[in-house]
Amino acid sequence: SNRPRSSTCLHHLDLGDVGTSRDMLIINDNNNNTNTNQLISALQKHDFAFILRSDGTWTYAILAERREKSMRFVVSLKGATKTMTRNRWLD
């Protein structure tokens, strides 16, 4: 494929790996979610991101599908997915 690789790819991580402060972009904008919303809005299919899991960890995932009110990420090498609705993006 001639398509460039996603600039969000971290080659030393596999899907499902737990993120560390070395890998993750930490945003501290004093309770102003504008910057965070802009970053989330910029995510496109096949971009990588860290997703907050139900156990409280942030894991490396790839955006598989984006809709107006939800995003579906692949969160493991086995193909497990997590869908996040818009109202949960900033939790």
Question: Can you walk me through this structure?
Answer:
This protein has 91 residues and is mostly beta strands. Helices cover 10% and strands 26% of the residues. A hairpin with a 3-residue loop joins strand 2 and strand 3. The longest helix is centred in the middle third of the chain and has 9 residues. The chain is globular, with a radius of gyration of 13 Å. The termini are far apart. The mean pLDDT is 83.
**Secondary-structure content class:** mainly beta
- Percent strand equals 25-35%
Number of helices: 1
Distance between the termini: 36 Å
Q: What general outline do the C-alpha atoms trace?
A: globular
Indicate the percent of residues in helices: under 10%
The Rg value, from CA coordinates, equals 13 Å
The strands making up the biggest β-sheet line up spatially as: 1-2-3-4
Secondary-structure element order, N to C: HEEEE
Tell me how many strands there are: 4
| Overall pLDDT score | 83
Low-confidence stretches: none
Major sheet characteristics: 4 strands, antiparallel
Strand and helix layout:
Blueprint: H1 34-42, E1 48-52, E2 58-66, E3 70-74, E4 81-85
Antiparallel strand pairs: 1-2, 2-3, 3-4
Characteristic key phrases:
1 helix; 26% strand; 10% helix; 91 residues; mainly beta
Structure at a glance:
The protein is mainly beta and 91 residues long.
